[in-house]
Amino acid sequence: MDIAVQPSVSWMEMNASIEDSGLFFPVDPGPPAKVGGMIATNCSGTNAVRYGTMKDWIVNLTVVLADGRIIKTRKRPRKSSAGYNLNGLFTGSEGTLGFVTEATLKLATIPEQTGVAVTTFSTMRDAATAAIQVVHAGIPVGAVEILDDVQMDVVNQMGGTGRQWKAAPTLFFKFSGSGLSVQDNIDGVRAIVLHNGGSNFEVEQDKAKQEALWSARKQALWSMMCMRETGSEVWSTDVAVPLSRVPELVEISKRDLDDLGLFGSMLGHIGDGNFHETILFDGDRERGLVSKCVHDMVRRALEMEGTCTGEHGVGLGKKEFMVDEVGEGSLQVMKTVKTALDPHWLMNPGKIFDLHNPASHK
Amino acid sequence: MDIAVQPSVSWMEMNASIEDSGLFFPVDPGPPAKVGGMIATNCSGTNAVRYGTMKDWIVNLTVVLADGRIIKTRKRPRKSSAGYNLNGLFTGSEGTLGFVTEATLKLATIPEQTGVAVTTFSTMRDAATAAIQVVHAGIPVGAVEILDDVQMDVVNQMGGTGRQWKAAPTLFFKFSGSGLSVQDNIDGVRAIVLHNGGSNFEVEQDKAKQEALWSARKQALWSMMCMRETGSEVWSTDVAVPLSRVPELVEISKRDLDDLGLFGSMLGHIGDGNFHETILFDGDRERGLVSKCVHDMVRRALEMEGTCTGEHGVGLGKKEFMVDEVGEGSLQVMKTVKTALDPHWLMNPGKIFDLHNPASHK
Questions:
Q1: Which of A270, B172, B271, B316 is deepest in the core (most CB within 10 A)?
Q2: For A93, which residue in chain B has the nearest alpha carbon?
Q3: Is A317 on the interface with B (CB under 8 A)?
Q4: Torsions phi, psi of A267, nearest 5?
Q5: Quick one: how far is CA B41 from the chain centroid?
Q6: Considering B53, B88, B109, which residue would you say is the last residue of a domain?
Q7: Each residue of B55-79: pLDDT tens digit?
Q8: Tally of domains within chain A
Q9: Are B90 and A50 in contact (CB under 8 A)?
Q10: If you compute the radius of gyration of chain A from its CA atoms, what whole number of angstroms results?
Q11: What interface predicted TM-score (ipTM) does this complex get?
């Protein structure tokens, strides 16, 4: 129940190639993602509410260090308490501690039965509240995703799904498990949805029909990208907050977009408290406004005890938030680890944080 | 769905005190365990096959570093990709990188329905094979535990469970979820058990009867401890291997105990490939023999691409295996991190590894 792969392997191709084994790799970021990048950012995706994030699926890593040494973090146990958790240290380090050349990943069993449900709400707050209640009830959904009215409208306009959707706040659910458990979980979710004013609750359990029903979720980002005209750009960002704060964050962020007169859609892996905004804007005229909007959203998430990024990583764009998020002390610990393993800052320099003051990093 | 606690809080008392919230902390090591020690060893327990290990349940840690600085690893998001995963680094570091003074832990929802099943086999290999097939089938059991004939006989002799058990290789299962899903999972497990020659498949879903049925598992270690006479000692150890190697490891380890004429029992969190031996021996006469037996079991686990410890940690007793397990390079990386964060090796010195050659640790 594990597989050894190199970093440029596509997770979708990997899953296609092992389908006959009855096993699959459950972390599902965007379709173009490759294993190396998935490790670098500790990515997640729609299945994270059920299966966790990338760091939870690493058995071992082969890493080239800054000084050219090659290490393998451990052998092949599914769990271990032997020494420091180097898998967890390198995963999510955005290539700044070493270069991953091979990874052994855990696999999961393909569920016996699956299902997809879609339902609409009057407000994003109602949709978010229903989603959080599903998680709180302990119903083991495979995924729970929120899309706003703008996003659903964009999917309609781009016409890639072969049907028209109601342009309203919408929740998408995946279900998986044994036949009876899927039925039980669908019933449990339906009750919570109805209790929170959800309507048009559609369920599919046939494989092809499930894909058709999931298609609006799948085509959300691409539809948004297709809306671009000459000179227009896309800014996509993500934050995550404690579950109890999600409805509030979603509502305020939505109002903020409207108040600034920006064209942006909202989408979230809401069961993890993880939430994305994708803003389409005029590169010349609106950049400042978009930057303000994104900054406000991140600041709000941090005030709500959240994180500046739930799954995209820090890169260059979110370095400025690191001190506020983890504190000066934790940031210094990260820099100390970085400097100890890569004294000359050779590995992906300038990402996550800068070495402003060489004397202060110890 | 999280809770902030100090390190000397007992996980059992914590769960008792939050029961009314409908939430619980699912990591279940031995009853006396406290949160600080659970973090230090990255512990697990019987629920790990369903819920994962300690590192998967940490939201943030407050840590006193060697130089007296106090850091909080992050705010309160349930997931994050912002910077290095310090939660994962400190969890399992056995107090060698810092002193944890507070932890925010994720909580899970108490399942609607639970169940317990017990079944016996002719051989440990058959029992282990059945357990691995259950995991491979993707049946989301709450726990799957293996106990050998010696262990069951000891439980009988100590008489703490109010009934007599068949002194045979035995599997214990926990089930949890919605009503129908528990039923489905019990049916799925029963079919696999019968296919592998299991018999006396007993199931309980009533709460008190579940506890009675689980009692032999719960009293396994204590019963073994009670067998001690004057001068006798107990050596308890654990290893973990890839799932496919578990039946072989279990069989050879059992034969090894018998060949050496030692009195020891076997017990395992077999769904994780994690496996314990508890040996009762004469402190004066048999120490060398027991040491050989434990060393052989660890060497065998490492040859099978496993780990010298699945959940107990390295401490002093397993330092000698670290190079074989993770390799010289990974061990050097651990020492480099240790030395960078604790240059004078003040924090729990001598655990996990030694600093043999101060010049070589960078």
A1: A270
A2: B84
A3: no
A4: -155, 140
A5: 10
A6: B109
A7: 999 999 999 999 999 999 999 999 9
A8: 3
A9: no
A10: 21
A11: 0.95
What 3-state class would DSSP assign to B265? strand
- Asked whether the beta carbons of A147 and A41 are under 8 A apart, the reply is no
- Of A49, A76, A109, the last residue of a domain is A109
Residue B167 CB-density burial (10 A; 0-12 exposed, 13-18 middle, 19+ buried): middle
Give the chain A residue whose CA is nearest to the CA of B135: A109
Sequence length of chain A is 362
Helix or strand or coil: residue B116? Answer: strand
Q: What is the DSSP string of B314-340?
A: -TTTTGGGHHHHHHHHHHHHHHHHHHH
> Which residues of chain B from 326 to 355 reach within 8 Å of chain A, CB to CB?
326-327, 329-334, 336-341, 352-353
Scan for tokens 């539809």, then name that residue.
Answer: A223
What CA–CA distance (Å, rounded) separates B105 from B1?
9
Same domain, B54 and B168: no
Q: Per the domain annotation, does A119 fall within a domain?
A: yes
Phi/psi for A214 (5° steps) reads: -80, -10
A261 and A190 in a single domain? The answer is: yes
Q: Which of B75, B137, B326 sits opposite A307 (nearest CB)?
A: B75
Q: What residues contact B279, with CB distance under 8 A and at least 6 apart?
A: B234, B235, B236, B257, B262, B263, B264, B290, B293, B294
Q: Which residue has the tokens 């990024």?
A: A309
Q: What is the pLDDT of residues B214-244, one digit of tens each?
A: 999 999 988 998 888 888 999 999 999 999 9
User: What pTM does this model have?
Assistant: 0.95
| Domain shared by B96 and B119, yes or no | no
